[in-house]
Amino acid sequence: MNSISDLLNYTTVRLECTNFDGSISYGTGFFYKFNVQTDGRCCYVIITNKHVIKGSKSAILHLTHQTLNGEPDNGNHASIVFNDEFDSFENRWVMHPDEEVDLCAMGTTDVHSAFKQLFGHNAMIFALGKEHIPSNEDLSRLSSIEDVVMVGYPNGIWDKKNNRPIFRRGITATHPFFDYDGKREFLVDISCFPGSSGSPILIVKDGFIHDNKLSEDIIMKNLYLLGVNYAVFVQEQDWNIKQINIPSSLNYMNKTTIPINLACIIKAERILELEKVFSGR
Fold first, then answer.
1. Pairing mode, strands 104-107 and 43-48
2. Which residues of 140-165 are buried (b: 16+ CB within 10 A; e: fewer)?
3. What is this structure's pTM?
4. How many CB atoms lie within 10 A of CB 18?
């Protein structure tokens, strides 16, 4: 049985975008469930930052194959190429209505359908959902210092053989219950680099518990999606501290900008606002 951390290998997707100017940029997206029905049906989407896909003409992402018994077929993955001569990759995305909120979503129903038609089975994904977003009561019970996990592709790095992301650990730098500087955000002490944009920030309590009724081990349901990484504080050559969107180009960071390992996180509750816009199109 897969633990929570094992399943999170199939939550994110590496976004490799080709922009209209010919440059290549990288970011992180993660699978999420919109419009969940009582019978379990839903619309799968990928969520990332607006600035990751801004100006992108085409893109490549990779999906891992799933075995017939629903397990990941590690090392076996397929490239999905978005290259429509009549449209741009950017236009596939629905933007959060607030210009100040750096979130967007892309439906993947057609992607999963095409994958199954091509290969005869589904892609292996583990989608997050509303059930993973902590309530205000949940957040109030957290301490000021909580261990967090970021899943993504810093500097575009990934396990390209097995199509797996990079996990990083950090701690909350401000309490997730409070709105940092009056915004519905909080800070995390963690290393961020180009490619980390759009990475989910999670609290993961990994392990198993034994269900006596089912007489089997089940996964502990203690997974919080706290928010989405979008910006970082950097120190410039003149010692000035500035907040910037995490660059998607690997060439941005240079000797005059030094990350100070403080990342800005959009609270996960703002995904619910994005879902309303997506559903109301």
1. antiparallel
2. eebeeeeebbbbbbbebebeeeebbb
3. 0.89
4. 18
The count of C-alpha atoms lying within 13 angstroms of the C-alpha of 80, restricted to the half-sphere facing its C-beta, is 22
If we measure between CA atoms, which residue out of 109, 51, 118, 48 comes closest to residue 79? 118
Is the CA virtual torsion 192, 80, 96, 275 positive or negative?
negative
Q: How many CB atoms lie within 10 A of CB 186?
A: 24
Is the pLDDT at 2 greater than 80? The verdict is no
- Amino acid symbol at 61: L
Burial of 252 (0-12, 13-18, 19+ CB in 10 A): middle
Query: What CATH number does the domain containing 270 carry?
Result: 2.40.10.120
Q: For residues 150 and 199, what is the distance between their CA atoms, to the nearest angstrom? A: 6
* pLDDT tens, position by position, 71-84: 999 999 999 999 88
- pLDDT of 220: 45
Q: Which of 84-88, 250-254, 265-269 shows the lowest mean pLDDT across its residues?
A: 250-254
User: With bands split at pLDDT 50, 70 and 90, how would you rate the model's confidence at 210?
Assistant: very low
In the chain, the number of structural domains is: 1
Give dist(CA 267, CA 229) in Å, integer. Answer: 9
Contacts of 259 (CB under 8 A, 6+ apart): 191, 192, 193, 232, 233, 234, 235, 253
**Structural domain span for residue 130:** 4-279
Interatomic CA distance for residues 128 and 151, integer angstroms = 13
**Torsion angle in degrees (nearest 10) through CA of 30, 35, 39, 45:** -30
Give the contacts of 65 (CB within 8 A, at least 6 positions apart): 72, 73, 76, 77, 78, 119, 121, 123, 124
